[in-house]
Amino acid sequence: MVSMWTLYMATGEAVLTDLWMSRATLDIIGQVGFSYDFKALDSEHNEFVEAMHENLVELSTSLGEDPIGAILAKLFPTAKSQQSAARRKRTKALFTSVYEAVKSRGEPPADDQSIGANLMRIKNPSTGQPFPEEIVLANLTIMLIAGYDTTAATCMWALYDIARHPDVQKRIAQELAEAGLLQVPGQAQARQLEWADLAAFPYFNAVLKESMRLHTAAAVGTFRQCQKDVMLGGWHIPKGSTVWIPLHSVHNSIHNFTAPEVFDPERWLGGGPTGSKPTPAASNTVHLHAAATAAGPPVEENTTASGPTKPFATPHSQASVPPNKAMLPFSDGSRSCIGMNLAYVDVRTILLSILSKFWLELDPSVGSHAKVEAAQVIALVLSSGIPIKLRLKGHGS
Question: Which residues participate in the annotated binding site?
Fold first, then answer.
């Protein structure tokens, strides 16, 4: 991908970061999770990525629509609804092709712990028999979508936030230069990114964390139905109630963060105008957990010997110190995102590879930040009419 972006830089053409990030993360989850090559980066256009982008935008913008309207659209289909149905059918066929490829390999070896292998070997605990094909296909589909879409959105928003703050970009470049990772025209080749680098670079990781706070990929959050009566923070939640945890609202609430609308990486380093204190540092142990937690505390750090830390902020909370529970890009607890570690590794690898070689600036077509904010849909993707573009130039320019 980086080499292909170099061609764009030479022509002065901007890149559409939403589609490029989706193509990169789709190839990663395809290979890592299913040993399947989507070849998404082999050409400028990829049917799966482009169809899924339109599907997700359509889904997000339709969440608040009148359900009666959806029924009428099925009874009296329009040209637009027919196009949507055809696109969804093509997308399902692509998911099915992945499933068939995984299934055709037969019984996976015991040491294969990929997502695809585990889906093939899992059994219904009630019967001891394999789940029906439609159940396995549905789970494969959600694993694929979750494995690439939210990661791509996180990368896109991080590039956007970095590009619109030149001082932030310069400081990241300095951090990379000190580590020998900055590729400067006319100078010796920079060293290759290594595993240990993913848990390094405090400022870069603070920038990433702040971008994830402002633009949480899973913005809608999660829903849970109470299985019993619960008293939480003085509130009685009856059994059967549906509880909504809207992550975007949690991350952008004045009850949890000082000046939440301000992009301020320093809030995670103990300085800056928002006056926030630092969050716990990541472990120095060189393994997946270390790389995955550098931008934030792992789940187990959200508890203490006396029980959970501050579970949520109330209107009377002190906003100057964001509690661990106020930063939940991957949710929390036993049902937190199972792909968190892989996502962090993907995001850091992609962003560091880009930032070590290019300066970024927003294409004039992007317009003001207010325009970009207005173009967001509920999943924090951008509608196809207003894509984000980044113009790349060599570090020496």
Answer: 337
